[in-house]
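Entry 14. Structure prediction run on the chain below.
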Amino acid sequence: MKTSIRIGKNLFYGDSSFPYGISRSGYFNKRESDELMIYGKTFEGLCNGSLSPVNDEEVQFVEGINSNSESELYPVNLWRKYLVAIDKSRVHHGFSMSNGKI
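Output returned:
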C-alpha cells in the first residue's frame, strides 16, 4: 500500500476481537491482514483521537472515517472493513428449542 500514513509503533493483532489473529479470522486476505498489522495501531489511534493527524492523507483518513459517504482512500475502506468484521465476530448464534422439547 502506497501511503503517507505513519506505520504503527507496534504490530496490531486485533486480539480483543480475533483471538487467533487477523490473518486467521477469514475476513481478510493476506495483503489486507498484513497492512492491518502494520498500520492498525495508527488507524485505531486516529479514529479514537489518541493520535492527531500529521499529514494530509491522515487528515483525509479521519474525515473519511467520520463521514458516511463512500471514500476513494484505500486505508479508509480497509479500516471500515475491519470495523464491519468486528461487528460480525461479536454475533453469536445459539441453537436451542424454544419450548424445550425434542
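The radius of gyration is 17 Å.
Filed with the rest of this week's runs.
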